[in-house]
Amino acid sequence: MISLESVSKYFGKMGNGNVAVQDVSLHIERGTIHGIIGSSGAGKSTLLRMMNVLERPDVGVVTIDGKRLTTMTDDQLRLARQQIGMVFQQFNLVHNRTVSKNIEIPLELAGVPKSQRQQRVLECLELVGLSDKGNDYPAQLSGGQKQRVGIARAIANHPHVLLCDEPTSALDPKTTSGILEVLRQINQQLGVTIVIVTHEMDVVRSLCDTVSVMENGMITESFSRAQDGFTTSPAYTLSYREQLLGYKEEN
Ligand SMILES: Nc1ncnc2c1ncn2[C@@H]1O[C@H](COP(=O)(O)OP(=O)(O)OP(=O)(O)O)[C@@H](O)[C@H]1O
Question: Which CDD domains does its entry note (predicted)?
Fold first, then answer.
């Protein structure tokens, strides 16, 4: 479904030690939720943004749904990105447009006729539990509600893939669990493949089927819920491996 083959990204001159992502290969199965976790500066966001070529890899190949994004022209990429929604930490809403008008933006860009746009906006509002907020402006909403609008906008064009960059990092734990529930629902009901960058182990444990741990621009470890199981130990002093697999292995 999503395939990265030996992708690297350098900022500034190549080979001067300023590598953000180095020689990463990753395959994410259709319909799964994949987490990318790691400390600040590990390269998580850069890796995510290479999946829809918002960051163009300096080296390597990105394929989604069998389409090779890395060799596409800008016009081809714009079309391909309609199948890849994106959710941001700071929501990135347009403040002088209502909630409904925010959700309508990707539909306008995709050339969907106005009558169909309104119907789709209502569906998306319902999906994220904001049916009564369509006429509000972003400033009238809580953080969790703003992120629900961000998610509604990201799924408006029926994408196959949803890329989420720290979607809950600006939110408190209770609001976070509501947002994770919305993402889970989108995955289970609509079959959307989700990739989520986070530094919160609880997000991985509650949501993800598989997870990659990043360090210094590389994937250092990978885990799968089916094979490894994830524990619920909130022992934040432990390594990612210890947090996910528990003490058992160590003792
Ligand atoms: N546009 C850019 N120009 C220069 N360097 C960049 C740029 N974007 C990222 N970097 C560098 O690349 C490395 C990886 O950054 P990235 O944002 O991908 O990490 P991250 O794991 O997502 O970190 P965080 O959790 O803090 O967001 C960092 O050293 C960062 O400073």
Answer: ABC_MetN_methionine_transporter (cd03258)
